[in-house]
Design brief:
The structure is a single chain. By secondary structure, the chain is of the alpha+beta class. The chain folds into two domains: 226 residues, no CATH class; 89 residues, no CATH class. Helices cover 43% and strands 16% of the residues. Strand 10 and strand 11 form a beta hairpin. The longest helix has 19 residues. The radius of gyration is 22 Å and the shape is globular.
């Protein structure tokens, strides 16, 4: 395998920054703490308990859960709304912990890099070569790596094992599968791959999970009332605080700005990005926010240089709604 544990953690840290910046973490510290408590309850029962695990709720109505290398695990608020008990949440987290503990993502990346670099290099590849081969540019593309059927079977098996050891009834995983089968893939959109596309549901997986259950499991915890109380203030569907469209105007309540766009243009938005596309698809307006400690002028020049024909025709600093701004054309 090309990735040492230290390079796996480095990749996870990089990807975590990109995910948090692009999708945003749900603004409810109590609910995030609750998620972390359940996740950390499972950690001692995993095969890699020495890793530092991080659990977060992404602020999107899409139904999804996923993990990236190094111990970073995410669920969306859309998924939380689809679950029916703490036991189901524990099994979902156990499944993602299974992917991390079995190193499914880094194994797949290693195979991809070997194809790119040449199989002849084999085990002689050093960590430095692995970085050169694309480690620094992988980032959020990890979300679109699909697991094999064997990977999914193993993650299901580990979810049952970890949850049982932590005191949760592993039959909750079957209940979750049944719920998803009824809902279908509601995630839609294009911001994240839908849960059912990255975790395909098959009758075989349900049968396999059922075969792993034990009679004593029925005595273990499900905690449905506790879970539903925790979701009492959960926002469903789109969060208007992240921005909304009325007619031909986009409003962002938190940042205090609005943007008018031509009739016929289509808009999509995420916590840190607004995309407007003309009806003939020949023009795109992208409004994006990202953290930076650079002076506004230097930052603007750097961003302009990333675009073809990024020649600056005019420039100037101004204030918009009490925010410092730098406008250039």
């Amino acid at each position: 395998m090309l990735f040492s544990e230290s390079s796996e953690i480095q990749l996870g840290e990089q990807t975590d920054r990109e995910i948090r910046n692009q999708f945003g973490v749900y603004d409810d510290s109590a609910l995030n703490d609750y998620l972390n408590q359940i996740g950390q309850r499972l950690v001692p029962h995993t095969h890699r308990p020495h890793l530092q695990y991080h659990f977060a709720i992404l602020d999107t109505p899409l139904i999804n859960a996923f993990a990236v290398p190094g111990g970073y695990i995410y669920v969306t608020r859309g998924l939380l709304a689809a679950l029916n008990s703490e036991g189901e949440l524990a099994l979902v987290l156990g499944h993602e912990l299974g992917h991390v503990n079995a190193r499914h993502s880094v194994k797949k990346l290693s195979r991809l890099f070997l194809v790119q670099i040449g199989l002849a290099l084999g085990n002689a590849l050093s960590e430095t070569v692995a970085k050169i081969s694309g480690l620094a540019s992988v980032g959020i593309q990890l979300l679109f790596l699909k697991y094999s059927r064997d990977d999914e079977r193993e993650a299901d098996r580990l979810a049952v094992l970890y949850s049982r050891r932590a005191g949760y009834n592993p039959a909750s995983l079957i209940n979750f599968f049944a719920t998803l089968q009824k809902l279908g893939d509601l995630s839609g959109g294009h911001q994240l791959p839908g849960f059912l596309s990255t975790h395909p549901l098959t009758s075989e997986r349900i049968r396999n999970t059922r075969s792993l259950l034990q009679s004593e499991d029925s005595r273990l915890k499900v905690a449905r009332p506790t879970y539903l109380r925790r979701l009492n203030q959960l926002i469903f569907d789109q969060d208007p605080r992240q921005g909304f469209v009325e007619g031909q105007t986009f409003y962002h309540p938190r940042l205090g700005f609005q943007l008018n766009f031509p009739r016929g243009w289509k808009s999509t938005h995420q916590p840190s990005r607004l995309t407007l596309i003309s009806s003939d698809k020949r023009a795109v307006l992208l409004v994006e926010g990202e953290p930076s400690n650079e002076p506004l002028g230097d930052y603007a020049e750097k961003k302009a240089a990333q675009w073809e024909r990024g020649e600056i025709l005019s420039r100037g600093q101004e204030t918009i709604n009490h925010f410092q701004a730098f406008q250039q054309t």
